[in-house]
Write a structure and sequence with these properties.
The chain is an all-beta fold. Helices cover 0% and strands 50% of the residues. The strands form two sheets. Strands 2, 4, 5, 6, 9, 10 and 11 form a seven-stranded mixed beta sheet that branches.
């Protein structure tokens, strides 16, 4: 199994942009990669995912504002976030999924949107 480490979170002003990274300890070429977020007291929310072949899915509420990408050579998955609003404040998690295997989760990175 690979290990995942998210980074790039922090404090950003409303209307700003942020790019999160998810670095893997090994090859991610055979994994569908995903991004989720969670606000305290709420369920973990799906944002976007990308298959090994490059097919991607973005939840309706994030289309046009968030985008997922991956660089298998760098063993890294990215989440580009634009037009951030205070409601985007949450812990953002990276996920790796492979058929017949349990999902792998990173530790999360905190994003705070505030003026």
């Amino acid at each position: 199994q690979v290990q995942l480490v998210e980074s790039g979170g922090g404090l950003v002003q409303p209307g700003g942009s942020l790019k999160l990274s998810c670095a893997a300890s090994g090859s991610i070429g055979s994994y569908t990669m995903g991004w989720y977020r969670q606000v305290p007291g709420q369920s973990r929310e799906f944002i976007a995912s990308m298959t090994p072949g490059g097919a991607f899915n973005v939840a309706d509420s994030f289309q046009g504002r968030f985008a997922i990408s991956r660089d298998n050579a760098k063993r890294t998955v990215y989440l580009k976030m634009n037009g951030l609003i205070p409601e985007d404040t949450a812990v953002y998690y990276c996920n790796a999924n492979r058929r017949s295997h349990d999902p792998i989760w990173g530790q999360g990175t905190q994003v705070a949107v505030s003026s």
